Amino acid sequence: MKLICLDKIQVSMKKGTMRLPENIDTPIICIGPGTGVAPMRSLLFERNHCSKGKSKCVLLFGCRSKCNDFYYSSDWEGLSNMCVWPAFSRDQPEKVYVQHKMIEHGAELWNLIHEEGAFIYLSGNAKRMPIDVEDALIRIFKEQGGLDSNDANSYLSYLKRVGRFQEECWS
Length: 171
Hints:
Blueprint: E1 28-31, H1 37-50, E2 57-63, H2 66-69, H3 73-77, E3 82-88, H4 98-104, H5 106-115, E4 119-125, H6 129-145, H7 149-161, E5 165-170
Parallel strand pairs: 1-2, 1-4, 2-3, 4-5
Helix pairs in contact: 4-6, 5-6, 6-7
C-alpha cells in the first residue's frame, strides 16, 4: 500500500447564527445537551466578559454521567451570576434530560423569558431533543403563564420570529 501525503487541506468556516442581545442586561438561557454545550460556552463567556458578570445566565446541560461527561464543568464555577442546571441521564434509575430540568425550574424560566425578556439558545443533536425542548417550553408557558395551547404555541413562534429563541442543531 502506497501512502500519499497531501500538502494542502481545504477548509471552510461558516459564521454561526446565534447572536447575543444588544442589551447586556438581558438574561440568557442556554440549553446545550452533550456537545451542544460548546457553542453555549462561547456565548456564556462572551456575555460574562461584556456584562462584567452582571447579567443573569442559565445553562441547562445534559449528559449521561456527571463523572464521565460533564463537559467544561470547572469553567462554569468561574462565571459570575450564572445558574447551571445539569441533567445526568444515567446517574439514577430514571432518566433525567434537560427538558425535565426545564419543567422543574419552570417558574424561574417563565419569569426570565416573560418578565425579564430573556433570550433562549438551543444547541445539540437534532434528532429528538429540539422537539422535546420546545414541548417543555410550551408546557411552561401553559403551566406558569396560564396560556392555552394556541397562545403557548404562538408565544414560542413569536420568540423565534423576533430572535429571542435561537437554535443551532445538527445530526
